[in-house]
Design brief:
This protein is about 40% helix and about 10% strand. It has nine helices and seven strands. A seven-stranded mixed β-sheet has the order 3-2-1-4-7-6-5, with helices on both faces. A hairpin with a 3-residue loop joins β6 and β7. The longest helix is centred in the C-terminal third of the chain and has 22 residues.
Amino acid sequence: MEIPSVKHLVSAEEWQLRVDLAACYRLVAAYGWSDLVFTHISARIPGPEHHFLINPYGLMFDEITASSLVKVDQQCNKMIESPFPVNPAGFVIHSAVHEARDDVQCVLHTHTRAGVAVSAQKCGVLPLSQQSTFVLASLAYHEYEGVAFRDEEKPRLQADMGRANFLMLRNHGLLVAGKSIADAFLSMYTFEATCQIQLSAQAGGELVQVNPAIIKGVAEAMRVQTGGMGGAFVWPSLIRKLDRMDESYKL
């Protein structure tokens, strides 16, 4: 598929954001978290305009490139001409989070089997693993209201999420909010691992839960583990991994 470059049409800052977001889409595909074309990762472009980048609707995640990403406003109107369609319904959840959270640059949403399975469990996320403690330190839930294409759902989603960085969409999937694309990816990696571990543990014998007091100190533990860098600590190694596989996301 021949996709014309938009590098000459955007700032250097936006181009780097495009490259990182395209990399994130490719990594989500590589880790098996994509759902054909039916989920989204959005990124806020720095500046007062409230513009965002989102995937061209209909492309698989492993096809997405920096130039194919579509720039939209808060109402999902295209800001740069693109041959690709966008999915306004798919942007409802993302725009709700971006609208309420100025601290969030990237919103990553998945429909993985493990994530949907745990979202359907009444208990939600259980403190069964080290990974789960990082999630439980900043976790919120939002009840299922059907396919999320109605703007009227946005205030309820915003109220449920509050200042949490992990959101479990009941009967639907997982969502994370990150201060950067790297932070969002690391958060989803942890969230997905939490759900997979929980399902595996539940298939075995009697469960041992983590002491609730440990969860209170998790933020400091994560800061120490990543040298205070958060997702930026692992992002360069992920980019090297992706470059060994396929560098076409940079186009």
